[in-house]
Design a protein that fits this description.
Helix content is about 25%, strand content about 30%. It is of the alpha/beta class. One of its GO terms (molecular function) is ATP binding.
């Protein structure tokens, strides 16, 4: 399958900055918003995370592909990133359990990338200039043509993308004889979230993104989960209405990442596009309710507006980011609803925040209240 040659490739940013490197993956052209992830491992989970849909991923770890690809280490049914930028693109892999190389995987899934560039310089540039659109090509060398194509790419600000990655039909996950049932709104849900519910004796029914609360309520779930996903939460009135309906019914509810932002929107708290966002495995977050710190995995380009959260009489802050004081968790006063901006299900890790699934189960069981 591997038909790899070190053809030249170009990365062009929206501000006109150009990087020259070598082709990786499929020979072709791709566009998207460029962002970077600081994780030292877990590239396969990153590639298949639906929250990265529409984004070109820059990996800061120097070697990508060195432990190959494994079918059991994916977060969705396919690669979701729009393209890859890396320094060393390792086709030969060392792990015996791997089922294919990164090159074979990328070719099978039509993913275009670029390697052998100075990712340190690129990340510093993005960090200083902010997230922006970009284009990668290993087939077009004319910069004017690339600029023309790049100019037609819409901004992530205002884009509704969850309905493009969500399931089209409801499906079940876990043991039908489990003690409790959770209805999950799939806005780009990761498989490891479902695994964490299954591990806690929870049977999950996963619904398409635009499913109403009335439709989900017919199943008789004991609680509701609002998933992570890509795009601008403010461009998702359908999901905001669903969250409002769950709140009005006072059902137990837990949201992660995009689900956190939607819970804020449903309580009249605005969201914003961040300058760079948080993406990596080492973000320090303080649980101000329990007074302890946890190292977290994060992946989001939007966030809730801190000033509006602090002024709100509907929610209280539960978690804050110790790097920039952004709001990482809230719970709704007088309701059975809470959310976090980060990923407690993170795989391969860290696992500091897995207790949040236990908190949700306790909320469903009636053992937790505030």
């Amino acid at each position: 399958m591997t038909n790899y040659t070190k053809l030249p490739a170009i990365l062009l940013l929206a501000d006109g900055t150009v990087f020259y490197g070598k082709a990786a993956g499929k020979i072709g052209t791709t566009t998207g918003e460029i962002c970077f992830n600081t994780g030292m491992t877990g590239y396969q989970e990153v590639f298949t995370d639906p929250s990265y849909y529409g984004q070109i991923m820059v990996t800061t770890n120097a070697h990508i592909g060195n432990y190959g690809m494994h079918k059991d280490e994916i977060e969705s049914g396919s690669i979701k990133i729009a393209g890859l930028v890396c320094k060393n693109y390792n086709i030969i892999y060392s792990r015996k359990e791997a089922t294919e190389s990164i090159q074979d995987n990328f070719q099978n899934e039509n993913i275009v990338g670029i390697s052998e560039i100075d990712t340190r310089a690129l990340v510093r540039h993005i960090r200083n200039k902010g997230a922006m659109n970009a284009i990668i090509s290993s087939e077009i060398t004319d910069l004017q043509e690339l600029k023309k194509q790049l100019a037609a790419v819409p901004s992530m600000d205002g884009l509704e993308l969850s309905s493009q990655v969500s399931t089209t039909e409801p499906y079940y996950y876990g043991n039908p004889d489990a003690s409790y049932k959770i209805a999950a709104l799939d806005l780009g849900i990761k498989k490891n979230i479902l695994r964490n519910f299954d591990d806690r004796d929870i049977y999950v029914k996963v619904y398409p993104a635009k499913t109403t609360f009335a439709e989900m309520d017919k199943w008789g779930a004991n609680g509701y989960f609002i998933s992570n996903g890509p795009g601008d939460p403010a461009a998702m009135p359908y999901a905001i209405e669903t969250v409002k309906s769950i709140l009005d019914a006072n059902k137990p509810m837990f949201g992660i990442c995009l689900g956190h932002q939607l819970l804020a929107e449903a309580n009249g708290i605005g969201t914003m596009k961040m300058f760079n966002g948080h993406r990596g495995l080492n973000h320090p977050v303080k649980n101000i309710i329990k007074n302890h710190c946890e190292v977290t995995s994060q992946n989001h380009g939007f966030g809730v507006i801190p000033e509006e959260v602090r002024k709100s009489d509907k929610v209280e802050i539960t978690h804050i980011n110790l790097n920039d004081d952004s709001i990482e968790g809230i719970r709704v006063k007088g309701k059975k609803a809470f959310s976090v901006q980060y990923h407690p299900e993170s795989s391969p890790g860290p696992h500091d925040s897995r207790y949040l699934f236990d908190d949700f189960v306790d909320l469903v069981k009636g053992k937790l209240a505030w």
